[in-house]
Amino acid sequence: MLKKKDNKISFRRVTLGNYLNNVDFNRKLVIEIVNSKAKSSTLSCKTSQKVRKKKQEPLLDFYKITTKNMIDEIQKSKDLIDNEQYESALNILNRLKELPPKYENLRLLFSSICLYNLKDYKSAIDFADKVLQENEKNEFASQIKYLSYFELKEYDTALNEIISFLSKNKADLYKVTLEELLIDIKDGFINKDETISKIKELALKNNADQNIMDF
Predict the structure, then answer these.
(1) I need a labelling partner for 180 at 20 to 30 A (CA). Which of 40, 59, 136, 165 fits?
(2) Looking at residues 63-79, what average pLDDT do you find?
């Protein structure tokens, strides 16, 4: 059995760019989305020159407004999460529809963070799973699954999650978790030889604190 820890998720210093795997969250993307939507809208109106002239400019203005609002709403939800206002953040995220894939993944990730902190662990796992289906390298989502399984007292499943993720990816957030698990092993909270061997292997691979590993 793992030792009980304070498993509160807080990513206050994490930028939206980090969540998007180093893709800058800025207004350039607004221009890309607006231009893309404007182009497709123009093509769909080719059947009538008059209709196109009447609709093109208002349609472009509409997309400028809605796309800007979309990004502002995502930013607002992150600010609320940073201030631990999870219900309010989740309400905003639930209202966002038809997002570009990159931002839909961000919405799902933020939703999973909210659900975890609201102690709806099963739903948090479901949302984090959807994120990982699109991006199997998303460590945030994997960590939410790990911590949620921990809170559900599904300790073996929690350990399998971190082992599975780190078997394919390097540890960043999980580096501290690995060091905590090494202490759990040292204190006798993890007893399965196979699990102990794998955690030690992953800790060594990810340059965990050598002082903790000397036992």
Answers:
(1) 136
(2) 77
Calpha distance 73→108 (Å, rounded): 14
Tens of pLDDT, residues 1-43: 555 555 554 443 444 444 444 333 333 433 343 344 434 433 3
CA dist 184 and 174 (Å) reads 15
pTM here? Answer: 0.72
- Whether the CB-CB separation of 170 and 154 falls below 8 Å is answered with no
Smallest CA-to-CA distance from 165 within 127, 192, 124, 205 is with 205
3-state secondary structure the chain: CCCCCCCCCCCCCCCHHHHCCCCCCCHHHHHHHHHHHHHHHHHHCCCCHHHHHHHHHHHHHHHHHHHHHHHHHHHHHHHHHHCCCHHHHHHHHHHCCCCCHHHHHHHHHHHHHHHHHCCCHHHHHHHHHHHHHHCCCCHHHHHHHHHHHHHCCCHHHHHHHHHHHHCCCCCCCHHHHHHHHHHHHHCCCCCCHHHHHHHHHHHHHCCCCHHHHCC
Beta carbons of 187 and 4 less than 8 angstroms apart: no
Chain segment 86-102, per-residue pLDDT in tens: 999 999 999 998 888 88
Q: Which of 148, 142, 117 is nearest to 130 (CA)?
A: 142
**CA dihedral over 156, 163, 128, 4, signed as positive or negative:** positive
